[in-house]
Amino acid sequence: MYNIKAAEVKPSITLELSAKAKKLKSDGKQIINLTVGEPNFNTPDYIVKGALEGIEKGFTKYTQTSGIIELKEEIVKKLKSFNNIKYNSSNILVSTGAKQCLFNAIFSIINDGDEVIIPSPYWVSYTEMVRLSGGKSVIVDTSKENEFKIDVKSLDEKLTNKTKILILNNPNNPTGSVYNESELKEIGNWAVKNNVIIIADEIYERLTYDTKHVSIASLSEEIKNNTITISGFSKTYSMTGWRLGYCAAHEDIIKIMNAVQSHTTACANSIAQYAGYVALRDESKYNGITNMIDEFNNRRKKAIDYISKNSNLTINSPKGAFYIFIDIESLIGKSFNGKILNSSIDISEVLLDEFNIAVVPGIGFGNDDYIRISYAADEELIIEGIKRIIELEKLAK
Ligand code: PMP
Ligand code: GLU
Question: Which of 7, 315, 326, 354 makes the best surface tag, with the fewest CB within 10 Å?
Fold first, then answer.
């Protein structure tokens, strides 16, 4: 009766579990919510004021589908100064969150049966976007031993004449892995040689710790012409609800994505666009973003330290984003309070039902031996949440 592809799509497990935790909290349960990746900071004041200024100036109507010129020009400047990529405003498409950029890109490239290489663990929405676009996800497994990173050898093994896209999420959600320049160069050159378009999801680009972010499109003109770079405002500026993201790519693909977007959502919210323009324009006068990054780094260090000193749980020390992917393989097959722990979903359910802590099961990211916690929450809550996970580790028999 319904569209088969749409009917098969699973709802976003991150958003679903976050909503469940919020509901339990509002029902009076003392839940620690370490599910969703959403900074627990307010949107900076200067951006909120920017939005009000936008309303007063009349930025309340449809804009060009691709976004207001003021914002696109600021994005061009930021791409040059932060990402070291030279583009002009005709290479930019502003959308309703990085999520829409990703969907626009995948939908605009894929024909029925085309293959998209996705390194696992992967962010929950990629495979579902590929499914909706009629494509086939081809998963490349990675492991803790290689810092959850792919290399050219693993890509070669998955390459077929149907391979169209490689999705590269750097820094990675959920593992926090960050690629260095030489790793990116090899992957970029592989993609150029094999005519595979790279969708570079760099939404966490500003959130790297003790390491520098490198944009794959900055590494050569050939790689740049073969890459769609995606970022947004949700993470860096605590603007998740404003729904503002953008992509930068060759004009040919931007034109197609622009046409697709013009029939789906048209422009991104005009007030959010103006606020985004102010966020970039005035960022240098504001040090709140550096403070936020320092605070995430502080929580990251404390959380890693606590886990390694107090438990046998193993993790891959994350270098970016704000998640810790915790290996729970040692708990699989054990039981707690009569409940057998057969999967990451069982473990997440026991954590929620018996320990009042909400986490995301690794299976949502393609790996059932892990759970993900987000450290975009208050420090005491993170440590208390980790204590409860460790309690389950000790009590499960
Ligand atoms: N990519 C990744 C890896 C994410 O974790 C998210 C979630 N915020 C997005 C894209 C989408 O972000 P946005 O809020 O800009 O749609
Ligand atoms: N990307 C964030 C997360 O993984 C936000 C939720 C979502 O859009 O999936 O938790």
Answer: 7
**Residue 70 C-alpha to ligand 1 middle, in angstroms?**
23
Residue 11 CB: number of other CB atoms within 10 A? 10
Does ligand 2 lie within 6 Å of residue 21's CB atom?
A: no
Whether 15 lines ligand 2, by a CB cut-off of 6 Å, is yes
pLDDT digits (tens, 9 = 90+) for 35-69: 988 999 999 999 999 999 999 999 999 999 999 99
CB of residue 276 inside a 6 A radius of ligand 1: no
Q: Are residues 192 and 303 in the same domain?
A: no
376 in the same domain as 300: yes
CA of 187 to the centre of ligand 1 (A): 22
Please report, for the domain that includes residue 138, its CATH number.
3.40.640.10
Q: 95 C-alpha vs ligand 1 centroid, how far in Å?
A: 12
Joined together, the tokens standing for residue 26 give 């509002």
> Would you call the peptide bond into 318 cis, given omega within 30 degrees of 0 as the criterion?
no
The number of folded domains in the chain is 2
* pTM given for the model: 0.97
Q: Measured on CA atoms in the order 168, 125, 159, 114, is the torsion positive or negative?
A: negative
Residues 274 and 310 occupy one common structural domain: no
Q: Is 240 in the pocket of ligand 1 (CB under 6 A)?
A: yes
Q: Which atom of ligand 2 is nearest to the CA of 174?
A: 4
pLDDT of 25 above 90: no
Structure tokens at 62: 């449809």
Residues 137 and 34 in one domain: no
> Are 356 and 327 in a shared domain?
yes
Residue 21: is its pLDDT beyond 90?
no
Residue 379: how many other CB atoms lie within 10 Å:
13
Same domain, 52 and 25: no
Mapping DSSP to helix (H, G, I), strand (E, B) and coil, where does residue 300 land? helix
Residue that terminates a domain, selected from 285, 303, 326: 285
**pLDDT of residue 20 exceeding 90:** no
121 ligand 1 Cβ < 6 A = no
Q: What are phi and psi of 260, to 5 degrees?
A: -60, -50
The tens digit of pLDDT for each residue in 217-258 reads: 999 999 999 999 999 999 999 999 999 999 999 999 999 999
What is residue 376's predicted lDDT score, i.e. its pLDDT? 94
